Amino acid sequence: MAMPSKKPTIDVFRKVANACGGILSDIAANIGVERSTVYTWCEEDMAFKQALEDSRERFVDLAESNLRKLVAGVPAIEKDENGEKRFAGWIERPSETAIIFTLKTRGKKRGYIERSEITGADGADLIPPRTLSPEEAKQYGLKLNEEY
Question: 100 has which bridge partners?
């Protein structure tokens, strides 16, 4: 494949980036340049950087769309003798793993977590960490030795 003499237009780059799901190595291979070249274009040109970020977001959207199908399943619908639609089973059953994953990640605010995350206002530490002085550390060590 011949190496391009200059970087592609933003429209060409956007199309390639979207087709490659924002994966830098795949974009570079499809354009015919090194991965580092694409990286440099994105560092130097905000339009290229934004196009790359947008393509990656579209890829995540695609994954979420497919996750939705796994969570909801794909029902088989048929019409009865009266022409009414009715559930006739599953083309693809809902995935328990996908349901659990979704609840643990997107359902955290509703309590679907395995551990409690306690924070202060705006996610700050509830109790600020404190470093012991050398004397406090020594006293703490002596106390632990006595108890255990």
Answer: none
